[in-house]
Specification:
The protein is of the alpha+beta class. The chain contains 7 helices and 9 strands, in the order E-E-H-E-E-E-E-H-H-E-E-E-H-H-H-H.
Length: 283
Amino acid sequence: MNERGAGGPWHDLRAIPLPREVSVSDQKHRFDALAFAENFSLKEVAALFPEARPAVEGLRLALPGDGTVFFYPFGAVVFHEVDRARRDAFLAQLPKAWSGRGADVLHEDFHVVTGAGRATAVTGGALEIDRMTPEREGVVALTVGQSAAMEYYEQIVESLFGRTTELVAGLERRGKVPLAMRRLHRFIGQAVGVRCEVLSVLHLLDKPDAVWDDPAMDEIYDDLRDEFDLSDRFEALEIKIAGVQESLTLLLDSARDRRIELLEITIVLLILIEIVLGLAKVM
């Protein structure tokens, strides 16, 4: 992932309230997702933490005592039942390229309430289920991590969209684009790179194979996707990126046409100069 814009290192994108009615026998689970400035190689994560085990689309690492950390290749780390102090201590162990130190880190949290007899549903912004299993824990962590990563892409695409709008506005005011095309080419390359990176996340939005083994997990996954609007947000990203690319293609064509026009004018002037010089020699 690319670096984010200016701001503090922690951004609470969601502060989701717990359901109002929680009995003493119920358990409350907190998931914290952090989307970093760089993608992860799961092989490198496994080398750094040999005790990590495969999880749904990622790796699961059980911390000493209690708490769990999930790593995902799209640059997200999700903590389950890990307080802020332990998170900071754990993040300090990560390589600088992963942890995003010196760059902003997007933060998103989510709550799950478990209790005997509870039907699977999202109520008051929190997921309610009858019990927590390692498989269900992995599905919840994956979805929360995807939402945090999606927020990162939304910010990047919004920035590209804003810069493209400025370029198009300049074309509208002046009726032409600058002759220097290197910056435009670099910007187009950045836009194409972002689109490829976003599209590479598409397969992560497919339903994981693990949910087919537990009907309740299938329901949990669908409810969480709806809660975080993952499909709609992804479609919105695709539409914006397509709009950016169309606008940049128009600007690039305009720049090329102007260069061709100047080249033709130059050729005509050279021909005229040659004719004038020829006439001067004859006279």
